[in-house]
Fold:
Amino acid sequence: MTPARRERLFSVVLILPAFLFVLIFAFFPIVHSFWLSLHRIVLGLPGLGEPFVGAENYIELLNDRVALRAVKNTFLFVFVSTFFEILFGLLIALVIHERFKGRGIVRASVLVPWAVPTVVSSQMWRFIFNDKYGLINFLFFGGDVNAYRAWLADPVYAFVAIVVADVWKTSAFAALLILAGLQAIPEDLYEAAKVDGAGWWQRFFKITLPLLRPALLIALLFRTMDAFRVFDLVFVMTQGGPADSTNVLQFYGYKKIFAEGMMGYGSAVSVLVFLISFVVSMFYVRMIGKRMFR
Amino acid sequence: MKKRGAFRRIFVLLTLTLAIVVGINACKARNEQQKTVIHFVTWKPNIPEVWDKIYEIFEKENPDIKIEKQIGPHSSTAFHDMLTQKLKNRSTDVDVFLMDVVWPAEFAASGWAMPLDRFFSPELKKEFLEGPLMANTYKGHIYGLPLFIDAGVLYYRKDLLQKYSLEPPETWDELVSVAQEIVEKERASGNKIYGYSGQFKQYEGLVCDMQEFILSNGGYILEPETNRVAIADPRAVQAVRFVRDNIIGKIAPRGVLTYQEPESLDLFVQGRAVFHRNWPYAWKVSNDPKKSRIAGKVGISVLPHFKGGRSFSTLGGWQVGISAYTPNPEAAWRFASFLASERVQKLIALMAGKAPTRKSLYRDKEILEKNPHFTKMKDVFLNAYPRPRSPLYPSISEVLQRYLSRAISDPDSDVDTLAKEAKEQIEKILSLTRK
Structure:
């Protein structure tokens, strides 16, 4: 065996575990979902068999008003929540990047929301937005019980509530990624800028932001992908209601498969979620690739 | 050298441990071998003492059977997801399971539940109430033993009605005016009270509550006999509109749109609602001084109806089913029929306040002493109306929940159009079952 061949063989062996992992836990389920989505499978009616129906589920999906509303809700959720998460993440990162007394404690405590499991934090926010004993009502109206509002019963506020809960939880994660980017910016650039008489804002816009772009893009990628998968918040806080105002794609797919037993149709919804996030992530990866390796 | 000694010692220790473990398990296995294990899928009970006692009695009387419990989530929907997942995979760790009243058709059509005709004698059938038996029947075969029933009832503040010398309402219009009167006068004296509390969140309970309004106006979700979708008929639409215009955000706080049973009961036991719609279990809770501020001040009555209609309650409750894949049908039946037996139902009625499914128990003195409202409410239980029976009920329910939630949560909703949309969707689902 030539050393070159041995080296290739060795590299294959090294890659194999990761490759198998991706194959079994990512590739296979995706292909299988796609296969299921081409069939009509109704668990409650085994007598129907599992006929191959081609694109029928997808055609139905495009005409399903509830699904289209869920697509709209999902995109709105992704845009609004990632926007605020990156914004707050940047602010938090800038603060904890500065040197001040007790920075260690502040850095640690900023991460607390991120460490709480989403199911727990969703339950917590459900209490906070509760119409009878919720903190939000108390903050706004104090003891004036008759003015208390049922936030989660209102289509608009219920949507705002899940966005707030998501932003609260995951801004810290964005901050962490952005902080790493900040720390990679060499100090002497700022020194030089100061010598040249640049003010704080100038330094921020001319040095920090451009050099932070890769970190921002990565944070954006992670947050967008994660936001597309939103499920637990909706499951705990609103169950998609009131009147479908918080129904998102993942929750709709879950309902179709697990509550209604519509395996084929539900799989089509899952494939749609996959396709959307795939396209978006490809777009990000290309952008990041260009910026980073130019 | 030293190192090797250590290895040997570890090796000997490991072998010994292994031998002991294997030995113990072998002994255990021999003991268990004579016993048939019945896997019972159940939910986390509100009052676990009852169930501990039930298992204890059964295992004492049936030494050859061992009950292996599997506790699932308390929410019916979540429990359904877990149980069907197991049955779908033909799992052998399910022999006997609890079924919500709306599942038998689905479980029968999917071949998950075993038909019990060969065990269920006509004499035995006669001992059960008809409504729950019907709910367990699909295409002429019976698939479950009714364990206890639920039916929607109206609770009210006896003390407040007396204070203003008002009678419990018979029609929904009366309920609204009585509620308005009491709320107005009570609020004038600083009591922050609402008129009505019920379950209007987008979930299964919404279908139960709204079906009662629709039926009591002479409407239907599915017309009996013909199975025609009647949700967009004028009477059904009128009832939905009544709830939107007179209940949500009027006599009931807007918050009811986010309420399931516990939240709505909370409002009532805190003394902050005049009327409350719930299942029979709320009687015990609202009269428990430890959990309720209104213990002893609670009245119970049949739900109101609309003018020209009559009262209806939605049928709820739980059944015992046997998996079609059980290797031990005889033992499974012994356990299932024990659960639905008179003495176990009596135990559940006495300790947990659930309404039995056996006719004779409504004459039982002890039960009536503990649950005096059973006498008055017997007819309500007897006449409780089922939700549509279909193997695709979960899909039908999803459509109904979506429609009803949209119709009642927006004061300007176009109920007619929404109802027509829902009707079309349900017809489409039903057409699948005819294929």
